[in-house]
Design brief:
Chain lengths: ~130, ~375
């Protein structure tokens, strides 16, 4: 069973053993509008919890993408670099951003469950 | 100060607009389709823009009005025929642009369309420069609606018959719902189109009838990407108090007949006409997919700073990032390689011709 959690910066993270897949939430894409550019971290680089690990740009503005946990980047999704509109189409499945070899699983504890995240987005957008 | 709403506010909400504050007004940034679809629909069919936040200033009275306005604006107002429009500027003494505007000669005076964020200041500045025999009316009883795109003429002609005979940068009176409306053939998208000045009480039904005839409401987001592709300036971004029309590469808007005459800022402009300018507005195309937004620094190949970006986005029709900016004049030639500093990296880019997007008009009558 893989576990999906959410950050206050609107990233989702799915953990399978040591491998964490990270992307941005549907709610984030709705706030951003049409995404026209994506930049991902370099494979092999190390990223720290809450540090910048990419950029997305809509027609309106640029936004940083943060990593909700620390680890080594083991894979990035070239599909969303080639066609950033895929992020709007399928943000929480095929349009993932990067995969990490997670450094410390306990960093997952501070993240939100799906229910908590939904409550959080309702409160912050109200 | 409370936020103002235009006469179309209920309609914006009905059609799913995301509303934002812009120049003191609650305005739609986009509707349900999103900026890219709205942009493309305007280019392929027609889009309706609520631009009621813009100022509609009527000036009338006195035989010397044309003469006196020529002391303020560098346009050839004496040659302007009734119902003809010209793009011009309100400048300061240093030749800097306080606002860019459209002046239309009306049978009873002049109509000046002003930017929303500048309109109250413009009114005071113009009033202070004119003799008080003239009547100035910043008319807030009128909405302003733009209809833009290749189908605009067909859609509008169904609602207000006869208006498709208007020539570009000309206007006239028409009747809608038994009331007078004033329509000009003009716009801010690089497309053929119209701007309709209409009573607030008629604005909603008028827009609904445009929608019934196939047009869609378009937000400020797509208005911005459309105007950038068309190489048009946004006041506050690409034009400001420290930039002259010559530096802004808008020399074409200063008629030769006015260069030797006197108007606010004329000394500076005359010098710039003769001696040239240090910075110049240019089109910029990044070589990669990276978007350079306003305030991005521009460098030459020796890592020296040579200018900055004033507007930048992804152009939905050109399908590439585009930018407008100012560079040291010696770097303004088309195809000059420059570098844009985005998130600490130097992104290669090239100076290019404006506009980024050029319409191939079927009829030769329209000159944009």
């Amino acid at each position: 069973m893989s576990e999906v959690k959410y950050s206050k910066e609107h990233e989702w993270i799915k953990l399978d053993g040591e491998e964490a897949t990270i992307g941005i939430t549907k709610h984030a894409t709705e706030m951003l509008g049409d995404i026209v550019f994506a930049e991902l971290p370099e494979k092999g680089s190390n990223v720290d919890k809450d540090g910048t690990a990419g950029v997305v740009e809509s027609t309106k503005a640029a936004s940083d993408v943060y990593t909700p946990v620390s680890g080594e980047v083991i894979d990035t999704n070239q599909m969303i670099v080639d066609d950033p509109s895929k992020i709007n189409e399928d943000p929480e499945e095929s349009a993932w951003f990067f995969k990490l070899k997670i450094k410390d699983k306990s960093e997952m504890d501070s993240l939100m469950s799906k229910e908590e995240y939904e409550k959080f987005t309702k409160e912050t957008s109200a | 100060m409370s936020i103002k709403k235009t006469s179309l506010n209920n309609l914006h909400i009905k059609y799913g607009a995301k509303l934002v504050e812009f120049a003191g007004y609650q305005m739609p940034i986009q509707y349900k389709d999103g900026i890219i679809q709205e942009h493309k629909y305007t280019r392929s069919h027609s889009g309706i823009f609520d631009v009621s936040h813009m100022g509609q200033l009527f000036i009338s009275g006195g035989d010397d009005l044309t003469n006196d306005l020529e002391k303020i604006f560098p346009a050839d107002l004496k040659k302007l025929k009734t119902n003809q429009s010209k793009y011009s500027f309100l400048m300061n003494n240093k030749g800097g642009i306080q606002d860019d505007l459209i002046i239309t000669k009306r049978s009873d005076g002049f109509l000046i369309i002003l930017n929303a964020a500048c309109k109250y200041n413009d009114y005071e500045v113009i009033k202070s420069k004119l003799d008080n025999q003239y009547k100035l009316n910043l008319d807030e009883s009128l909405s302003l609606i733009a209809l833009q795109g290749p189908e605009a003429k067909n859609v509008l002609n169904k609602v207000i018959p006869g208006c498709n005979s208007l020539k570009f940068m000309n206007g006239n009176n028409y009747v809608y719902n038994n009331k007078k409306v004033y329509i000009t053939r003009s716009g801010y998208t690089g497309e053929d189109g119209f701007e309709i000045s209409i009573k607030h009480s008629d604005a909603e039904t008028f827009v609904e009838s445009l929608i019934e005839n196939g047009s869609k409401l378009i937000g400020l987001g797509a208005r911005d990407t459309l105007r950038m592709e068309a190489g048009l300036c946004l006041y506050g971004n690409d034009l400001d108090n420290d930039t002259s029309p010559i530096e802004a590469n808008l020399k074409w808007a200063i008629p030769k007949s006015r260069i030797e005459t006197e108007f606010v800022g004329s000394e500076v402009l005359k010098n710039q006409f003769q001696g040239g300018v240090k910075k110049l507005r240019v089109g910029i195309k990044p070589e990669s997919k990276v978007i350079a937004r306003g305030n991005t620094k521009i460098y030459n190949d020796k890592n020296q700073e040579i200018g900055k970006v004033t507007s930048g986005t992804f152009g939905p029709s050109v399908e590439h990032p585009i930018a407008i900016g100012y560079v040291d004049n010696s770097y303004s030639t088309v195809n000059t390689k420059i570098f844009l500093e985005v998130r600490g990296k130097k992104i290669p880019a090239n100076i290019c011709n404006l506009p980024f997007y050029k319409k191939n008009y079927v009829k030769g009558e329209i000159n944009v």
